[in-house]
Amino acid sequence: MIRLKSIRLINWYGFSQITVPIGIFTLIAGKNGNGKSVLLDAIKYALYGDTVFNKSTENKGSRTVTSYTRGLLDATAATFMRPAEQMPNVYTHIVLEMAEVELGKSFILGTVIDTDSGNGFLTRRYVVENKKLENIAHTYEDNGQVIPYSTSELQKVLGVKMMDVKEGVLKFMQRTGLRLNEQQLASFRRKLRSIMSYDPNAKIDQFIRESVLEEKKVDFSKLVEAKNNIDTLNKNFATIDAEIKELSDIIKLFDGLQNARNVILSDDVKIAYRKLLKCKKDIEEAIRNMDMANRQIEEDEKKLKAIADREKELRAAYNKAKDNLNSMDCAKAIEEAEQALQNAQDEKEKLENEKTALIEFQTRVSQLLSWFYEKNLAIEHQDVLSSLTLDNFSKIQKESSVDYLLKKIKDHRDEILAEITRIKDELKENGRQQLKWQQVIDDCDSKKTTFSQIPDYVALKNEINKEFGKRGIPSEACFACEYVIGLTDELWRDAIESYLGRRRYTILVEPEYYDIADDVLNASKNRYAHLFNTKLLMKKVITPEEDSVVQFIEVKNRVAKQYFDYQLGRFHATTKDKVKNYENAISKDGRVSVAMDSFFLRFDKIGFYCLGQETIELNRIKAKKALEALSAEYKESHERLQQEESNKSYLDTAMEFFGENNFDACRLYDEVLMDCAKKKDELERLKDAQKNNQEYMELAEQVYRLEQNLEAMNREQDAVRDNRSAMQTEYRINENRLKEKNESITSIESDLIEFEMTNNVVYTKAIEDYEKHIANGPGSAGGVLKDRARSERSLREAGDKLTGAQAAYNAVRTEDNQLPMSDKSRAVYESRKSRIWMDDLQEIQEKLKEQTRRYEEIFKNEFVLTVLKSCEAARDDLKLINAELARLKFKSKYAFDVKYVKDGSDYGKILEYANFLKEREELGTTSSQMTFDAMASYSDDKGVELEKEIRKIINRIVGSNDKNQIEHYADYRNYMTYEILLTNDVLRSAKLSKQTGYNSGAEVQIPYMLILLSALLMIYNDKLNSTRLVFIDEPFAKMDPTNVKIMLGFMKEQNLQMIFCAPDKTELIGNECEVVLPVLRTQVDLMEIGIVEMHKGV
Asked: What DSSP string describes 655-669?
C-alpha cells in the first residue's frame, strides 16, 4: 500500500506556508469557513487534477485554481489576499510526501502553480524519488523575506523534469499504483467527490442519481441546432412559398386580364365575321339581281324579236301598198330610189357600228400590247395588231394576228391560274407555320417552356402528379430540363441540346416515389414517354470527367444533377480536331464521339431550346424571327396573289372583246358614205318630177296609215328597248355594288387575319361559336356581346386588380427586387417565379432534406441510443457495486434494485423506441426496412407507430425551448427507477425506503456510506500496491455513536486511508484518528493549523 504521509502548502488560499502530517485516519477539525475543505481540494487537485472544488460557504461557486492561488476574499468586490498590484506573480506549491509501506521508501509528488498578473496560471508536476519533505526546500530567503521558488527556479534547484497537466497526472497515477487512464480517472474523481460531499438527507433515488451514478447528459445542442436549422429553413421555405404563391396569383391576374381581352377580341372577331357574312349576303343578292336583270334583258330581246316579226308582216303590207302607189307615174322610181337610199343608210349604220367596235377593239388591243410590254412578255405581229383600223394590211393578216394574240392571252392566263394555285398553297402552309410559331411566342410570353412536341410526355407527367396528389405525397414529377437553371457557356448550347434530344424531357421523380411513378407508367396509355429510374440512379456512384461537358449545366436539384452527370459526365468537352482522341467526347461544333462512334449532330433538328430559363427567351427570339419572316413572306405572297388575280381578271375582261370583227369596216364605211350622198341626190330629183292625181292620193292615204302603224310598232319597240336599257343599268348598279362589297370583304378579311394572328385559338373558337349561334337562331348563345360596355368595364377592372397586386408585391420589397408594373410584364413575373422555384426553393428543399436526415440521425444515434447505452452502462456499474457489496462482511447486506421506466410516460416510450432501434441494428436493418416478425420483438407496424410517437415527443421537447425540461430529458438517470434492497437476520431483499426510520435519514447513512465506499473499493481492490485514499466532508451527520464506530471499524478493516473534515463529533471521530488537524482562521487572509499526532501506547 502507498500512503500519504504529509502535505506542504505554500500560497494556497489562507495557508501561506504549512507542512502537516497525514495519518491512516486523519481528522481536519474546525468550524465552517475556517478552511477544512481547502486542504482536501489541494490534495485532490495535486493528486488527481480535480478542479471541481468543494462548495465555498462564503462565495458560492467562486472556487477556482486562481481563487485559491490569489486567495479570493470577495467575488463581488474582486478582492484578494495576494492582489496582482502587490504580487504580480504568485508561486503556489502543493507537495505530497508518499510512503511505500511494504518497501519502506518515500517519494515526493509535487505540484507548482505559477499565476501571472492577468490571473493566467500554469501548472507543472514533478516526482522526486527517495526523498522526504524535510529534505526539500520550496522557499528561499532574500533580504529577510521568505520567497517561494517559481517553476523554473525549482526545476534548477531540484533538477527534476517538470510535466504538463496531462503528463503529470498520468505519471502520478502510475506512481501511486492506480494506473488509471483519462476516462477511468474522470470516473474515479467523480466517485471521490460523491463520497466526500453526498447528501445524507437525500432520498434513495436522489442519492443514487446524484452520488452513485455519473452525470452524463445527452448533448441536446446538436438536436436543438438541427431543429432550429429546420425551423429556419421552413420559415425561409414558407417565405419563398408565399412569394411563389403571390407571383402565381399575379400570373392568374395576368390570365384574367388576358381572358378579359380575349372576350373583347372574341367579340371583335364576331362583329367582323358578322360584317363578312353580311357582305357575302349582299354579294349574293347583287349577283341574284344581276341574274334577274340579265334574264329580263334576254326576255326583252325575245320581245324585240317578236315585234320585229310583226313589223315584217306590217311592212310587207305597207310595201305592197307602196308598190301600188309606186306603179303610178314615177312613184316606182322614187320608191326604188328611196329603197336604194335606205339600203345605203342601213349599210352605213351597220358599218358605223362595226367601225366603232373595231376602233374600240383596236384600243383594247393597244392596251393589251402595252400591258404585255410592261410584263416583259414578247408579242409578235405588233405592227399588224397596231394597224387594225388602217388599210396597211389585209383582212386575213389582221384576223391571223388577232387569233395569235387571243391564243397568247389564253396561254398566259393558264400560267396565271397555275401560279395562283401555287400561291394559295403557299399561303395556307404559311398560315400553319405562323400558327405554330405564334403558339411558341404565346408560351414564351407566358414563360412556359415549349412542350408542344411531346404531348405524351406531358400527359404522363400529369398522370404521375395526379397520383402523387391522391396519395398526399409532397413531391412533384418534372421534366429533367425543368431543373436546369442555365448554361454557363451559351456557345455549347446547340451541341448539348442536340445530343440530349428527347432525353431533355425525361421525367424525374424523387427516388423514394419511383415505384409509384413506375406503376403509373405501366398502366398509362402514354407508354412511349420516358420515365427515368431515379431509384437505381441515386444508388450509383458517378464521377464525371474533370473536363466533362456537364460542367456547363447549372443544376441544384440533387436528382437532376445526378441525372445529367450520368448522361453527360463521361463526355470530354473538347475541340473538333481533338474529339478523335477520346472514346466519348463532344465539341461545340457538334462533332461527337459516342463509344468511339463519331458523327456530327444535326443542329437544324433541335426545334426548340429547353435547358434553362434563358431558353424561353431564346425560343421567343427564334420564334419571333421566324414569325416576322413568315409574315413578310405572307404579305409578299398575298400581294403576288392579288396581282395575279388582278392580271387574271384583266385578261378575262380582255378576252370578252375578242369576237367577230370586220377589219375592213373603216374602209367600207368611207365608201358607203359616198354612196349615200349619191342616192340622196337621185331621190330628190325623182320627187320633183312626180305629179298629183286622185288615185295616187288614196294610195298615199293607205300608205300613210300603214306608216302610222309602223311608227306605233316602233314606239312599242322603243319601250322594250328602254326597259332593256333600264335592266342593263340595274345590272351595272349591282355590278358596282358587287365590286364595292368585294372590296369591303377584302378589308374585313384583312382584319380577321390580324385577329387570327393576334390569338388563333380565340379566333377559331369565336368563329365556331358564331356559326353555332347562326344555326341555332336569334337569342342563342355564341352571338356578339349584348352588353359590351360591361365586358369593357371587366377588362378595366382586371387591369386595376393586376396593377394593385403588382403594387402590393413591390411595396414589401427593396427597389432592387421590385418588378415592373405593366400589363406586358408577365414574362418577368414568370421568370422570377421560375427562378425562385428553380434556384431558392430547390436549394432549400435539398437543405431541408439534409437537415431532416441529420436531425433524425442525431435524434436516433446521439439521443435515443445514447440514453439507452448510458442506462445500460449505469446498470452494469451498479451490478459491479452490488457484487462488491455482496462481498462485504457486514451484518446487513445491501443491493441496488434498478429498473427501466415502464409507466407509459415519455421516458418509457423513448426507451421502448431505443430498444426497437437497437434490435434493428442487431438485425442489420434500418427502421425504414421490412423485417421478419419472427426475428424481431417489434413488428414493422409497431416500429412505425413508435417512430411517429417519438417524433411528437422530441418535437415537443425541443419546441418547448424550456432549458430545464430539455436537461431533464437529456439526463439518462431519469429513465430508471431506483431502490436499495436490505437483507439481514430479519428481512430479505426488503425495500429500504419502506423501513422504519427511512424518512429521518438515520437508516440510510450506513448503506449510503457502504455503497459509496464499495464504488471506490472496486477500484482499490483491483490494484496490488496503490493509494487507498478516501475523503469525507462532514461524515456521520445523522449516525449514532455506535454506528459511527461500526463504520470506522469497517473502514479500518478495508485498509482505507481516511481524511475526515468535521465541524462536530470530533471527539468520537478523533479517538479513532492518528492525526487531528484543528484549523483556525485567525485573520481574514490568514489560516492557521494545529497538529495533534496520536502514538500507540500513549
From this structure: HHT-S---TTHHHHH
pLDDT at residue 927 is higher than 50? no
What is the distance between the terminal CA atoms of the chain, rounded to a whole angstrom?
26
> How big is the CA angle at 136 (ends 135 and 141), to the nearest 5 degrees?
120
- Other CB atoms closer than 10 Å to residue 1063's CB: what's the count? 15
Distance of CA 1046 to the CA centre of its chain: 77
Supply the pLDDT for residue 454. Answer: 83
User: Torsions phi, psi of 1092, nearest 5?
Assistant: -125, 115
CB neighbourhood size of 428 (10 A): 10
CA angle 135/136/138 to nearest 5° reads 155
What is the rounded distance in angstroms from the CA atom of residue 709 to the CA atom of residue 706? 5
DSSP assignment string, 352-414: HHHHHHHHHHHHHHHHHHHHHHHTT---S-HHHHTTTTSSSS-HHHHHHHHHHHHHHHHHHHH
Cβ neighbors of 442 (< 8 A, separation 6 or more) are: 759
Kindly report the length of the chain.
1098
977 pairs with which residues across the strands? 899
Give the pTM: 0.49
Closest CA to 493 of 599, 579, 608: 608
Give the orientation angle of helix 514-523 with respect to helix 455-471, to 10 degrees: 130
> Residues 114, 149: contact at Cβ < 8 Å?
no
Considering only residues 1011 and 574, tell me which one the structure prediction assigns the higher pLDDT: 574
Task: Tell me which residue of 852, 1092, 1069, 1061 sits closest to 57, measured CA to CA.
Answer: 1061
Cell of 101: 509501506
Task: Cell numbers for 609, please give them.
Answer: 431550346
Question: What are the counts of helices (DSSP H) followed by strands (DSSP E) for the chain?
Answer: 29, 26
Mean pLDDT to the nearest integer, 636-661: 86
Residue 1094's pLDDT band (cuts 50, 70, 90): confident
Higher-confidence residue of 678 and 102: namely: 102
Share of the chain above pLDDT 90, in %: 34
Q: Residue 864 class from Cβ within 10 Å (0-12 exposed, 13-18 middle, 19+ buried)? A: buried
Angle, alpha carbons 234-240-245 (nearest 5°): 120
Q: For the segment 314-368, what is each residue's pLDDT rounded down to a tens digit? A: 888 778 777 766 665 556 656 766 787 888 788 888 888 888 888 888 898 898 8
User: Do residues 1 and 101 touch, judged by C-beta distance below 8 A?
Assistant: yes
What's the average model confidence in pLDDT over 92-97? 98
Q: What is the pLDDT of residue 276?
A: 92
Residue 868 reports pLDDT greater than 80? yes
Beta pairing class for 1075-1083 and 25-29? parallel
Residue 616 in contact with residue 441, Cβ under 8 Å? no
d(CA 1059, CA 1073): 9
CA gap 953, 946 in Å, rounded: 10
Whether 926 shows a pLDDT value over 60: the answer reads: no
d(CA 988, CA 366): 145
| CA distance linking residue 976 with residue 1063, whole number of Å | 36
When pLDDT is averaged across residues 837-848 and rounded to a whole number, the result is 70
Q: Which residue has the cell 294610195?
A: 699
- Average pLDDT value for residue range 860-866: 78
The rounded distance, in Å, linking the Cα atoms of 649 and 647 is 5
- The backbone torsions φ and ψ at residue 347, rounded to the nearest 5 degrees and listed phi first, read -60, -40
Is residue 212 classed exposed, middle or buried when 0-12, 13-18 and 19+ CB atoms within 10 A define those classes? buried
Domains and CATH numbers, the chain: 2-179+1023-1093 (3.40.50.300), 448-612 (no CATH)
> What is the rounded distance in angstroms from the CA atom of residue 742 to the CA atom of residue 753?
16
Mean of the pLDDT values across residues 166-175? 95
- Average pLDDT in the chain: 84
